[in-house]
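Hey L., structure's done. Input below.
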Amino acid sequence: MTALFHDRLNVALLGFALLGLVSGLVFWLVGQLDYAAIAWTAGVIPVLAALFVEIVRSLWKGEVGLDIVAALSMSAALLFGETLAAAVVALMYSGGTFLESFAQGRARREMSDLLSRVPRGAIVGSQVDHG
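Output:
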């Protein structure tokens, strides 16, 4: 997966999570609890799907991370009907991955800029006339 695609995916997931949480809160405030639960669930599903893909990739590489805890939290919250809690966890997870992606992109740009300033050659064995 290219860095640009990964960055855009993280932005999209954050957008889904934020839109689901906010729209659910609006429905909740106007007394439409069923629609609120649907909105919160709709914001969680894309984040959870992307998280499951990431977990499978990590496990395939032999790595185990804390992403499993986030997936379990969202899944259990949805299973028990706690859609607001699932939406909050989805927003926290997607926000964290967005910030991590942003920091990696910035570090990548800064390193490229720094490496562009490295001298390409050197003068070796120059003679100085002290005469």
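DSSP finds four helices and no strands in the chain. The mean pLDDT is 87.

-- N.
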